[in-house]
Amino acid sequence: MTDTPIDKAARATPRRVARVIKGVSDRTIAWIFVAPTIFLLLAINIFPLIWTINLSLTNYRANRVNREVDYIGLRNYERILTDTDIWLSMQATAHFLVWTIVLQVLIGFTLAWLINRKFKGNDLWTTIIVLPMMLSPAVVGNFWTFLYQPQIGLFNYVVSFFSGVDPSSFEMLGSVTLAPWSIVIVDTWMWTPFVMLICLAGLRSIPDYIYEAAEIDRASKWRQFWTITVPMVLPFLMLAVLFRGIENFKMFDLVVQLTGGGPGSITELASINLKREAFEKWRTGYSSAFAIILFVTVFGLASIYVKALNKVKER
Predict the structure, then answer these.
(1) Average pLDDT for residues 199-205, to the nearest whole number?
(2) Does residue 64 lie in a domain region?
(3) Are residues 94 and 19 in the same domain?
(4) Average pLDDT across the chain, whole number
């Protein structure tokens, strides 16, 4: 049976490709495949950053397109650093950041330590604990808004049961004192399972023979915990703190659902303040400078923290 021209061309195609590829290094071939993705990521990330920096040096307002734009240098940055509202929002962010991380690390590590101890129903309880982090922040916000209702909210009745206070006499979301803590409680409830999973991975990575050697040396459980468990889980704990710190620094949707930044501006985090400056007051240049300051702050703190994390891993 004679070959058709199509069959001959099909057999010749791999040979042509081989001749083209022959002599090209593996590194060059890898760059040929990776380069389009790299250029796309640079276009998506670098261009908006450069454009934001450019806007931060102007008095541009997005609601006044026909207005002449003037370059004012670093004046926006100077105004931000002396703006009391900005510093109040940063203070609210710091309060939220510190307390959520502290509570999530303590509760998450405790839950991981308990679950790591094999018991009946271990898998079922793990699944139940992990459920909150699977929900959307919008769903969580609406759910807890209902729980915080003074008249019908279950949370107030639980608190009144233990404290003896009338549940209708206080309102979590409407109180200047309680509103920041109401957000801390919700975020802790939602994201503690994430910290727990990371800690659980760290606990289960510890070889059993280390504990067996410690028992042979007659080390107490308390000493084993502080000399074996904590040091070996510490890198995992620090990694969880890094992830939650970055996420909570830019927290937006959950706070908007619960308090909207109120009452007053007591729960107005930096991200909410940035949104109001950009899309309510339309101070585009000013908000761009604020965004750059937040970016530099997060990037700088994360870089310092990663160096500390690497030093802990090298021990």
Answers:
(1) 93
(2) no
(3) no
(4) 87
